[in-house]
Amino acid sequence: MLRSTAAFILVSAVLGQTISLASTASESESCGYLANCDITNDGGGVDIAGGGWEPVPGPSDEMPTSSEPGEGTGSDDGDSGGDDTTPNPVPAPPGPGDLCWDNLTPLGCTTPAPTEPTPTPTQPSYPDTIYNTDLISFTPQEPTATAPNEAMALTNTPLPITLTTTTHSLTGTLLTHPVTVTFTPTGYSLDHGDNTAPTHTADNPATVSHTYAARGQYPTTVTTSYTATVTFPDGIPRPVRGTITITTPGPTIRILAAHTAPVRTTCTTTPAPGC
Asked: Which of 8-12, 80-84, 160-164, 245-249 has the lowest mean pLDDT?
């Protein structure tokens, strides 16, 4: 069967050939199945140059000899001439769970997990108001209380007692938060142990004098008052409402009575017991 002029123009345009066509279809038939075709027709025939094109072979490598309708290849009725070969398909873009492709080479790939933004840590909230009753688990240090002469004195003779303490800090947990509690002394109350009114003082250190009227032993008690501040991890000292007090035992006072007796000589001239 003859190849039509339109068929040659289409094939040559696709494969980059240069075609000068001015002949009949019968002359193009003699060239259509050659690997390299160079035909010259002095009478205005076909000139085909460029070479390098081979048509796709049909069922037989020989050029068909019959030009009857329905035989051979290249018919105008749409028959492709027996070439059932199809080009390799271009792979579709990968979908979920498919392989990744790079230059037609399958590569194992994974879909990265979506990243979630890092949550901003929640700042803890601390109470602004703290009461002295909240500090029940914090006990400030005891003051020192000293008296001269091993805490001994005569009746009706003043006996001084010196009280002192310092500002100090304790650490612990308050309302589920770690804290530092700072205690500052503000004064003392000294109970003399003889059923008289206690002596109060705001000094620190403080010296309290008391006179006992009867001989005997008198245990004393010291109550120390503190103000306090609480510092949470935010570093802000918060004052505590109310006064923190601590009561501790003081020295036991021994009071002696003085007695006189007649003597022949004085203590200056002849020292004797009782001088």
From this structure: 8-12
